[in-house]
Amino acid sequence: MSSSEEIKGGVHKTTSHDSARKHVNGAAIFIDDMPSFPDTQEAALLLSPYAHAKILEIDITQALASLGVSAVITAKGIPGKNDIAPVFSDEPVLASQIVEYAGQPIVAISADSYDNAFAAIKKVKVVYEELIPVLTIQEAWDKEQFTYEPAKVETGNAVEAIKAADFVLNGEVSCGGQDHFYLESQIALAIPEEDQAMLVYSSTQHPTEVQHGVSNVLGIPQNDVTVEVRRMGGGFGGKESQSTIIAAIAALLAEHCRTPVKLRLRRDVDMIATGKRHDFLFKYQVGFNEAGEIGGAIIDMAARSGNVADLSAGVLGRALCHADNAYFIPNALFRAWPCKTNTVSNTAFRGFGSPQGMLVIETIIEHIAHELKRPVEDIRSINWYGEKNRNVTPYGQTVTDNIMAQIVDRLEVEGHLHERRMAIEEYNRTHKTLKKGIALMPVKFGISFNAVPLNQAGALVHVYTDGSVHLNHGGTEMGQGLFTKVAQVVSSVFQIDIDHVKISSTRTDKVPNTGPTAASAGSDLNGMAAFNAAEEIKGRMKQVTASHFGVETDSIEFRQNRVYAGNESLKFSEVAELTWSSRISLSATGYYQTPDIHWDGKSMSGSPFYYYTYGASISEVVIDTLTGESRVLATDILQDVGSSLNPGIDLGQIEGAFVQGLGWLTSEELVWDQDGRLMTHGPSTYKIPGSRDVPPRFKVHILEDTPNTVPTIYRSKAVGEPPLMLALSVWLAIRDAVARTRDYKVFPKLNAPATPEAILMALDAM
Question: Which helix (H) or strand (E) holds 428?
Fold first, then answer.
């Protein structure tokens, strides 16, 4: 695979996002912008006010008689299965006998306007018998109340290694959840078609999952359901499984009243009714020697799964596989506890458990450094994975592409880490209330789905006789630039300007049985599938051109929008016309499956990742010891992206991921009351980062001249998720500032998010 510098929009070039101008001027069409179909109905949901209760009676009589109402659906009205679980079989579309979280949908109503649907919802009468809810991780953990069988990763004998260690530390740390807060809330438009067919426009990262969900609840074959996605206004994992229930309810109502039905969630309803990033409670024990080298570690990670499993098995699996981060731990016992609570089921979120796993191991590294009174960099360096030895992970995968130490060494020098530390010491000596801190964060992140069947993709490519190209694939566009990157791939294969490549909506009837656009694998999977499809067509065109000029096929070259046979050439469009005239197909499907990966879900061992990507960040912060407020002053990032498909888009992904991680770790706090009701369900009570929260000095650098060691699409690497973990440098820097108030004599007790209140409590505990 190679690229050209002579075409517009080829790979390795900064090419504008295909919808960039439309996003800015408001011309981008989202589901709510689509022209209304005749008789389109709007839907509203009745949500449970209780975290745990029996449903004794549902009276929909008055709602049915309300103005403009076309359909009222309860669990009894579902013709197929009342289950849209993505992994297990435990997640109802509408609650029937028991409600298990405050915000669970019970009744769905469609009417000729949203106002009428909303008014009718208020007329539904439900009689409940309240039950005692379980609301905290610790309570569920103590009761051994889990959503599925707990899992573990184990290598060596951690218990004995800790017993034999020179030093042993025990600790506890926790991190909160996070709302996805996508700009476009959950939405679906379902349109009943001829016979029993259903067309669904869904804001989803996983069209096939929506197709399966709608098929199940309606009791119709999958080929009767078509799901289309042109773009989303953000997803971040929140539209991987959670969008299925929205589409299923819209389809149920549409089937009932035989008219199009749109279900869109208001911001507060979206936050109350949909899953979030898992919050975790960690307890650890680690044994190490005088040099700080870890001999054994036991980490228990209890996560709030919520009322059902949803994707918790995958999330905790990733957390288990990233609790080592960049460090070799010869004897490890990592246990994951999926705690069942009467809160909304938590779900996928950018990083998918990896940020939580890295948070606990970095806390351990920091704790060891504090105990030995050594710089944390010394503890990191002695525990790095090696390149030829000390390179097997606790789950059994050999790390063969390790460049972690080189990245960190370079960033320490270019980011002037040691000089800045000295300057901070001087600053803190002369300032009583304001205290600075600084920290470095390394990230080793595995790329591929732990669920091996998801590591596959398909694409469909047509070349028309005028030389224009139609591109479709199973990936979805949520603002991350996937469509542009895959179009760049096709452009580079044919060596034509990207303007000639039409990017079309993802549809389940064009490319079937696709996996979700998640796990940072969108470009890896769909880019390769599109490459294979385009290469197949290109091969046919080569044969036709060779025959036309009477030369060998190997001598045919595609470049600069033309096809060359030595000194003679034709326009790409002319070759397309010639190929059609020769009755040779100009259409091909492409398929790709990630090679060299395997995973045993029972033993939690194998090689689940095709490769690793690496990065590091340095963040400097200042805290106000009187108010607890914090500010990020500067961040330096060095990120490995292989041979970037699109450096401009990748830089945007790095910056965006970091800021989103910053929000999770410093300001975004989910709070439930004593009855299990979410209190932070809008921008007035839930603080995402704003423009002033971005570091004033924010330097992001892509590691150059490091093509992927394995044959990915044009030797690129994933970039969507890994930089989010780099924001842990901010949290660690705040912890450093807190520790400096007592000259590192006391190990700080600061959990995430490090809100002003949390910082003040940590300072009080010093």
Answer: helix 417-430
